[in-house]
């Protein structure tokens, strides 16, 4: 007797690969296959071919997102093609457009790629000091009379 892996999962490895490349998460893949999330997790541990299919194809999806995030962070150009139908026939016009760099994408990229320098929260330690005193000696503005 063949198990559910043999009937529900193994014949669909190519489809599972496509779903993973398209960004589906494992919970959704399990649902599409008609198995529980815990069963699917067990299959990954028992069947190297499933684990490899998921790993390789998730990396493809992740690489596409990384590339898109990077392009958005630094800005990019693209060609917009417009087709107009008029009395003289069909005309195609190509215009190069620019997308400006996105500061939010830059911050996200740097926070994750260089957390040592770009973390939102910096840990600062002062060695040898038992007490830190903050002095606020900024003069207050005087009223002009």
Provide a descriptive summary of the structure in words.
By secondary structure, the chain is α+β, with helices and mostly antiparallel strands. It folds into 2 domains: 1-59; 74-119, no CATH class. The protein is 52% helix and 15% strand. The chain has 7 helices and 2 strands, in the order H-H-H-H-H-E-E-H-H. A two-stranded antiparallel sheet has the order 1-2. Strand 1 and strand 2 form a beta hairpin. The longest helix has 27 residues, at 48-74.
List the helices and strands in order: HHHHHEEHH
Gyration radius from CA atoms, angstroms: 28 Å
Q: How many domains would you count in the coordinates?
A: 2
| SSE-based structural type | alpha+beta
Q: Which sequence of strands runs across the widest sheet?
A: 1-2
Low-confidence stretches: none
Q: Sheet with the most strands? A: 2 strands, antiparallel
Strand residue content? 15-25%
Question: How far apart are the termini?
Answer: 98 Å
**Overall outline:** flat
Helix content: 40-55%
**Distinct helical segment count:** 7
Mean pLDDT: 88
- Number of separate strands: 2
Give a brief outline of the structure.
The chain is α+β, with helices and mostly antiparallel strands and 145 residues long. It is 52% helix and 15% strand. The protein folds into two domains: 59 residues; 46 residues, no CATH class.
């Amino acid at each position: 007797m063949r198990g559910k892996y043999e009937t529900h999962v193994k014949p669909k490895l190519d489809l599972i690969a496509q779903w993973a490349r398209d960004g589906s998460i494992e919970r959704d893949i399990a649902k599409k296959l008609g198995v529980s999330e815990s069963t699917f997790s067990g299959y990954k541990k028992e069947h190297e071919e499933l684990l490899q299919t998921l790993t390789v194809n998730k990396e493809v999806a992740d690489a596409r997102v990384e590339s898109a995030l990077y392009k958005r962070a630094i800005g990019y150009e693209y060609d917009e093609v417009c087709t107009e139908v008029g009395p003289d026939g069909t005309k195609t016009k190509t215009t190069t457009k620019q997308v400006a760099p996105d500061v939010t994408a830059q911050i996200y990229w740097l926070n994750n790629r260089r957390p040592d320098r770009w973390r939102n929260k910096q840990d600062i330690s002062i060695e040898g000091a038992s007490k830190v005193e903050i002095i606020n000696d900024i003069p207050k503005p005087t009223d002009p009379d």
